[in-house]
Amino acid sequence: MRNLKVDSVDMVYELPKGGSVQALKDVSFDLTGGRLLTLLGPSGCGKTTLLNILAGFLAPTAGTVKLGDEPITGPGPDRGMVFQQGALFEWLNVRKNISFGPRMRRKPTGETNAKVDELLATVGLKDFGEKRTYELSGGMQQRVALARCLANDPAVILMDEPLGALDALTREKMQGLILRLWKDTGKTIVLVTHSVEEALYLGDRLFVMAPRPGRVEHVYDLPFANTGLDVEPRELKASPEFIEKREEVLSLIWEMEEQIMGHEGS
Amino acid sequence: MSEHGPGGLSGASDERTLQMVDKSGPFSGWGIFNRSGSADARKTVRFGDAGAVRSMPFWSLLSLVILLLAWWTVTKAWGFPDDFRQQTAVAFAEADPPRELTDNNLVTACRQSPDCDENGYSQVVAPTFFPSPADTWRGFNTLRTEGFKNITLWEHLSTSLFRVGVGMLAGTVVGVPIGFMMGLSSRLRGFFDTPVELFRPIPPLALIPLFILWFGIGNPSAYALLIFASIWIMIIAARAGVRTVSLSKIRAAYSLGASKPQILFRLILPNALPELFTGCRVALGVSWGTLVAAELVGTDTGLGSMIFQARSFFRADIVLVGIIIIALIGVFLDLIIRVVESVLIPWRGKGG
């Protein structure tokens, strides 16, 4: 299990009209392999920027990012990516979407096929392998995206608001699936979300981030992800401990929002 | 909506009931009065509901009948009386040598006959200028069996089709890579912008004189013109096609371990196919029009050349047959592309 090491990362965007925005300032953490980290915060706090840096899509202006001992300099199959939506290849059927990674990396066909069968069963799409992706519902499409990323057996899975476009019911079901995949595969997951409840329920560790400049404001280590599968999710989310944490984080974010409003008002 | 199988949502079965009501009338399948076969029939807001507007086949058929009737009226109503035509036909057949029953010969016969008043039929449109449907049909049959000037209709037609095929293929093979380069690199975008924006507005026909000077009359001129007609369209279609790829797809593919050539051929190319097909459709239409015009002056075979030569011999029937065939082939080519498109890229418009 390789750790994800982020060391004093700065990210400054130069604006085309001059001036700049500090999207991240001095972000450092060391995430032990196998943990599920959720990133939460108001818009502009740099959570997606941080995820893109971890994925290797963006190079930070200062600081280093490492997976194990390897510095991250670009995207690679050791870090799988799940987007909110629209990242499936609609000209390929579900099977071909899932096997895209192994096929591009020229893995043996037989091995890949067996893997795809297994993954289809894992994400509950056993009979949908030959379907086109646009024939599936939003939730099913995200299941395909999850399976596609797992097909490469990455060390880390990065998710950018993976459930953001789904309806509330599907969202809850998918949260369960993500938890189960995390437990079964033991992979490191970093998940960006807008939903406080989702961040608390899924995060075995939670970063509440703050804007201007983007930074990690608060770190929580949470028990809910570890018990999440044994208890009924609705029950867990209605438990006093969960509600207490939820109110705490919510008020934290409200405070930030108010500061931003005040900042803009002045 | 037909994806909903039996026992689907209750909404689906409602729709089926409505369809049954819709189809009860004798003409409803033809869509004469109703918006056929859907819940649209129950909509109360209709004017402005542009998404529900379909082409009703009955009305298309009606306009075709009106067109044919108008043609028949204009030509036949003022044309030779049937009894005169029959008399002349008999006379022509008995003559030595037998004369062909063409409009020209009919006009001559009319002038020579005391019973036939030339002005009585030819004041508005003489058959020489605008043959009737029946004359045109005869012209088509002559063309089909004997050809015109020793070249059969099929030869003219296949020559034209072959030229368009070659021209389009060359235009696509050269244009698509250039369009891709323009879509993928700012430098190449800048470099090719100048020729593309400069040459694109030139009507291909304006280059006919130049191409005849350079390549002479015949195939080389025609090919040069067709490549010129299609290449800009294909470049722009390919450029637009590249742009339709979303950054998240590209990023996802890189994260899955794809190399740059794989990104190009396994992602950008299939993703651009819908736009490329649209480009092909437009280019084919433009090429077909350009070709026929080019053949008028630049070649001695092909449909355009055929109607141009027929004009010199006052064979309006051949001209008309040529025009109708050009129209029908144009429609047919577009239809073929649409069918190929629906088979090859069923995901069109469904990305996301």
For this entry, give a set of tags:
heterodimer, A: 266 residues, alpha/beta, Rossmann fold, 2 domains, six-stranded mixed sheet, four-stranded antiparallel sheet, 10 strands, globular, B: 352 residues, mainly alpha, MetI-like fold, 14 helices, disordered N terminus
Question: What can you see in these coordinates?
Answer:
The complex is a heterodimer of chains A (266) and B (352). Chain A has 266 residues and is an alpha/beta fold. Chain A folds into 2 domains: 4-193 and 214-219, P-loop containing nucleotide triphosphate hydrolases (Rossmann fold); 220-266. Chain A has helices at 47-55, 94-98, 100-104, 109-122, 138-150, 168-185, 196-202, 224-227, 233-237, 240-265, and strands at 4-14, 20-31, 36-40, 62-67, 70-71, 79-82, 156-160, 188-192, 205-210, 215-221. A 6-stranded mixed beta sheet of chain A has the order 6-7-8-3-9-10, sandwiched between helices. In chain A, helix 4 (109-122) packs across helix 5 and helix 7 packs across helix 10. The longest helix of chain A is centred in the C-terminal third of the chain and has 26 residues, at 240-265. Chain B has 352 residues and is mostly helical. Chain B folds into 2 domains: 60-130, no CATH class; 153-344, MetI-like fold, CATH 1.10.3720. Chain B is built from 14 helices and no strands. The two termini of chain B are 20 Å apart. The relative contact order of chain B is 0.08. The interface between A and B is medium-sized, with 26 and 24 residues.
Return the CATH topology of the largest domain in chain A: Rossmann fold
Please report the first level of CATH classification, the CATH class of the largest domain in chain B: Mainly Alpha
On the 0 to 100 scale, the average pLDDT of chain A is: 92
- Radius of gyration of chain A (Å): 19 Å
Distance between the termini of chain A: 48 Å
Number of strands of chain B: 0
Radius of gyration of chain B: 28 Å
Low-confidence regions of chain B: 1-28
Biggest sheet architecture of chain A: 6 strands, mixed
The count of domains of chain A is 2
Q: Which architecture name of the largest domain in chain B does CATH use?
A: Orthogonal Bundle
Strand content of chain B: under 5%
Based on CA inertia axes, which overall geometry of chain B fits?
A: elongated
